[in-house]
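User: I'll paste a sequence; please echo it back and then give the predicted structure.

Assistant: Echoing your sequence first, then the prediction.
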Amino acid sequence: MNTDSQEAAKNAAMPDVTPTFSLATILQFTAGSMESAERIIGLIVDEIPPLLSNLELGHEGADRETLERAAHTLKTHASYVGAEAFREQAERTELLCRTDNTEELPAQVARLATLGHATLNALNSIDWEQLSRDGHPQHE
């Protein structure tokens, strides 16, 4: 597991990583239901960590098929929450897994994992009670 200092080091290594999501995208996916949005985010938040673990194992020799499946699923989750940079990186990584370019793959997988952790942290920080009271998105 990652410690807070390891996570800080990951984010410091990639200063352009912004943990964003779009509440409007989430609500569009859930037909405007805040309750459904909260449930969907809960499911996504539960599913992301094992996928990130698969990516991190990729550095230790996981097969490209495992990495490709993880990237594909992360791409889907990122689309649901409007995390565009995360989605784009997942797509890039997924496509790269299908090529013979093994030289670039570790860096792309690492970047995807970093964006995944940043997005996961942002989703975990959603204050659903405040959003329900205020009716205002926290992130856009």
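The CA atoms of residues 75 and 91 lie 6 Å apart. The radius of gyration is 15 Å.
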